[in-house]
Design a protein that fits this description.
It is a single chain. This protein is of the alpha/beta class. It has 18 helices and 16 strands. Helix 1 packs across helix 9 and helix 11 (about 350-360) packs antiparallel against helix 16 (about 435-445). It starts with 6 loop residues before the first strand and ends with a strand. Residues about 175-185 and about 445-455 have low confidence and may be disordered. Bound molecules: adenosine monophosphate (AMP) and zinc ion. Adenosine monophosphate binds near residues 47, 247 and 286. Adenosine monophosphate binds near residues 34, 47, 275 and 277.
Length: about 500
């Protein structure tokens, strides 16, 4: 375990606090998963990227993390309260498919987006429809304990039974009334405005596709109950960190706390981690608004998913992040430059590949991020390696300060240690940042490093930039059929000791 104190902002206490898990060295972490009625947009994915970095930071430092995520495939109405249409049903109607087909399709799409962004798939991913009997049990206990009531054939949680219902969200009932303008068809069964549905049997949607028997009649669960049950099923009665986007604070997480703590009779989760929104010029990016951006739409426009990830990591997770293509282009330039610098490290390809495969181990690709020994073994200078590992962990441990961690990455590249040690360190950093550094190094160093191939030759940055620029200009000249200029560029490079070769894969160069 690295000797680093982790501090994170806790929405519950509204301050940055030292992170102390319930059980030493172990972390139980829960993430609210997607409602799988549509593609995840890049705003949703900002939240998952930041949660991924939180998880990986804890693992990097040495914690044994168990992370659980639900998949909402039932019960989430179009408002986050209990009004509107079931989102899943709306998706099924839109695409003329069954709800289960929609759920399967968009769960797979989400997994594919997570893969493209190097987001580690949580240890446990559980669809809500797997856990109906657990939901029913929790609702029964809440009724027995007097925290719930049946009205109009639905079961509701009675928020008036709690003194501290608003503990997380710092709201009050008056604000709720004012803020509830879209609540057009107010539910008259509710005793209190903030009460929420635990189990629907009588809804206005007679065509609800997924229904289950329950003690209160055939019906389906409310949205909030799934996260309480699924987290307890896999993490037990005490949880360390619960994550989501800031829009989840109210009502979703507020309701999760209300029902979980009433059910358990004790405090449930100690730390609440919320990621702020990705906004566009029209405000928060939202699925319901249409025209939202997906990872694939960025790829179609020519952006590597890693560029979007780098964009997210350069800002702090607690600040709103304004998306524009102009901002993304700036980050693309920075990312390409960074990749170029990493590619030009003078390293032995075989040693790099061996370290990457040793680190990955023979498992299913879910490597143990706590173990950096394969990368440390690669480094020639262990002191420099250890010192940078600590600085990087310290930057992240200060409320997941990813932009500071990226600064440490640049510091490594600027350092005067040898290139193999630098490669070892940045590979280790990529265990957390996961911005494709391992791929960049593995691909850059194909061809033996010492053979004088591009990316490996002992030319300085300035000369390398000049060579690359000249090759591009020459290509353009040839395209324009300006062979005199093309030849002049080739001769100019030769005078600097660089020989150009045209191959089927394009133009390459070597030292004369
Ligand atoms: P959903 O699939 O709508 O349940 O949302 C999945 C996750 O994305 C939740 O944690 C939301 O809080 C989060 N989220 C929704 N919109 C945004 C946004 N514009 N920026 C960042 N996170 C968001
Ligand atoms: Zn949730």
């Amino acid at each position: 375990m690295l000797d680093v104190k982790v501090e994170i902002y806790n929405t519950l206490s509204k301050k940055v606090e030292e992170f102390v898990p319930n059980e030493e060295g172990k972390v139980g972490m829960y993430t609210c998963g997607p409602t799988v009625y549509h593609y995840a947009h890049i705003g949703n994915l900002r939240t998952y990227i930041c949660e991924d970095v939180l998880e990986k930071t804890l693992r990097f430092i040495g914690y044994d993390v168990k992370r659980v995520m639900n998949i909402t495939d039932v019960g989430h109405l179009s408002s986050d309260g209990d009004t509107g249409e079931d989102k899943m049903l709306a998706g099924a109607k839109r695409e003329h498919k069954s709800v289960m087909d929609i759920a399967k399709f968009y769960t797979d799409a989400f997994k594919s987006d997570a893969d493209k962004l190097n987001i580690r798939w949580p240890d446990v991913v559980e669809p809500a429809t797997n856990c109906i009997s657990e939901f029913i049990h929790m609702v029964e206990v809440l009724l027995e304990k007097g925290y719930a009531y049946v009205a109009g054939d639905n079961v509701y949680f009675d928020t008036s039974k709690l003194d501290d219902y608003y503990v997380l969200s710092a709201q009050n009932e008056e604000e709720l009334v004012v803020g509830a303008r879209d609540d057009v068809d107010e539910d008259t069964n509710k005793k209190n405005k903030a009460d929420f549905v635990l189990w629907f049997t009588k809804s206005k949607f007679e065509n609800q596709e997924l229904k289950w028997d329950s003690p209160w009649g055939v019906g389906y669960p409310g949205w909030h109950i799934e996260c309480s049950c699924i987290s307890m099923k896999h993490l037990g009665e005490y949880m360390d960190i619960h994550c989501g986007g800031v829009d989840n604070i109210f009502p979703h997480h507020t309701n999760e706390i209300a029902q979980s703590e009433s059910y358990l009779g004790h405090k449930w989760c100690n730390y609440w981690f919320h990621v702020n929104h990705l906004n566009t010029t029209n405000g928060k990016m939202a699925k319901s608004k249409g025209g939202f951006l997906t990872v694939d739409s960025l790829v179609e426009k020519g952006y590597d998913p890693m560029v979007y990830k780098f964009f997210c990591l350069q800002s702090h997770y607690r600040k709103p992040l304004e998306f524009s293509f102009e901002a993304l282009d700036n980050v693309k330039n920075a990312y390409d430059k960074l990749a170029g610098r990493i590619k030009r490290l003078n390293v032995n390809a075989d040693n790099i590949k061996k370290a990457i495969s040793d680190a990955a181990g023979a498992d299913d690709g879910k490597r143990d991020l706590t173990d950096g020994s394969a990368y440390r073994a690669l480094a020639n200078d262990k002191d420099v390696y250890d010192s940078f590992e600590k600085s990087f962990a310290t930057a992240l441990a200060g409320d997941i300060n990813t932009s500071s961690a990226i600064t440490v990455l640049y510091d490594v590249l600027k350092n005067d240690t040898d290139d193999t040690t630098k490669a070892a360190i940045v590979l280790r950093f990529d265990d957390v940042l996961s911005i494709g550094i391992a791929d960049i190094l593995a691909n850059a160093s194909t061809g033996a490093a010492d053979a004088g191939a591009p990316g490996a030759a002992d030319v300085d940055d300035e000369l390398l930039a000049y060579i690359e620029e000249s090759i591009q200009k020459r290509a353009q000249a040839k395209k324009d059929k300006d062979f005199a200029t093309a030849d002049a560029i080739r001769d100019e490079l030769l005078s600097k000791g660089i020989v150009i070769k045209d191959t089927r894969e394009g133009t390459t160069w070597e030292k004369a």
